[in-house]
Amino acid sequence: MGPRSRTEVTGHGTGPIETIHLGEYAVRDGDAEIRTLLGSCVCVCLWDPVTRLGGANHFQLPEASSTRHPARFGIHAMELLINQMMSMGADRRRFRALAFGGAAISESLGSHGVGDRNVRFATDFLSTEGIPLVGGDLGGTAARRVYFRVSSGVGRVRRLPASTAPAVEPTPPTRPTRPGHPAPRTDTSVAGD
Question: Would you name the residues annotated as active-site residues?
Answer without folding.
Answer: 41
